[in-house]
Amino acid sequence: MKLDSPEALEARLREIGARRYHDKHPFHALMRDGALSRGQVQAWALNRYYYQSRIPIKDAALMSRMIDADLRREWSQRVVDHDGAREGQGGVAKWLHLCERLGLERERVLAEEGVLPATRFAVDAYVHFVRERPLLEAVASSLTELFAPAIIGERTSAMLSRYDFIDEDTLTYFSARLTQAPRDADFALDYVKRNATTPELRETVCQALLFKTDVLWAQLDALHFAYVAPRIPPPGAFVPCEEEAD
Amino acid sequence: MKLDSPEALEARLREIGARRYHDKHPFHALMRDGALSRGQVQAWALNRYYYQSRIPIKDAALMSRMIDADLRREWSQRVVDHDGAREGQGGVAKWLHLCERLGLERERVLAEEGVLPATRFAVDAYVHFVRERPLLEAVASSLTELFAPAIIGERTSAMLSRYDFIDEDTLTYFSARLTQAPRDADFALDYVKRNATTPELRETVCQALLFKTDVLWAQLDALHFAYVAPRIPPPGAFVPCEEEAD
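The joint structure predicted for all components is written out below.
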């Protein structure tokens, strides 16, 4: 398929999402099927906190590269969504709440203790990508949001029905994202369709999305390896209490 | 143990190596015991090529931050060791030779096709660390070389005796490293012992070495997950021929 139009680009991006988004990862399947232990969900939440905490940093880095004030104003809503208008609000705080509801200690989560090195490497690669690559690619790397509503819906309903240690209050993060993610994704998709004006530029947009799907996928690989099979956490990684008793 | 002297620092560094260096990783144990297939050794070599190829880039980044010309001159030997005095020489070329002897196509290795995203993220994290952290920590992150001779000896003799697809000519990379690594490690160890003049600075040296052991460990985690157990290569990753026939 040649990338000779904005519509061809959108079709390719959606095809990448259909094949490579992390809703296809076996760890997600286990979560959806209710097959994870509380300790495994804790490990997921702890590591994902590191990702969440770097998202507003990533968005600020992106804004720092935008010459157009309109674009910065538009993008700044993402930072507000994650950081909140004041302490205790916003997506990162809601993720911290999720961690606490799962039984993790707030201070240990904030200290980023026990986060898998592979999580850090993948997430930091995302921040560096956004700092270093052309603005078009940096914007394009946010396009995984296109595929977020489906995974959120699947994950939320599964978590509520299959895990007795999770209730609605645990998952407030996701209800906000269900409206934020499509708004952000629509904006970014429109941006790349308008600004990727040649087949070559459209190809860089696709590569940026592939990079980002790798960032998400690698995080689940690392969780799966450390906490599911063969279950070999690297030195210094979080050990769930139940596993300690094994 | 308080880090109140250069000797206490050295002792702590050696203790970190004894616990966290990747010769303790189960993937290394499989390699040493001759339990890996040719395809698994290929995957290791291909991914490790990405690491090798970034080492002279890392060392150039480090040199770019050294004000002292003596120090740059000393450090430049590392770049020469890896890049060679001319094309076809040096450690990176020798690693490419190893890949070819294992049956990988030279052009595909050079194109970095099929390298695990987790390898890229870990290796790139190392390059970024060296660019961004204080010079003392950047130098300290090279100290895993202290522990290289032991793993090289163990790996080389195991590979020669246990894998019929490996011979002396395959492993010329390692024979050079057996003299280079101790020379480099001695220099870097002396540097950090002289320049880390407070317990706090010595602690940052230890943290830098821990970071580097995580970089090495995460690479073997990713190989183990993709190619040993549960053997789920991420989308786009190298697939050995024998696995294709499974």
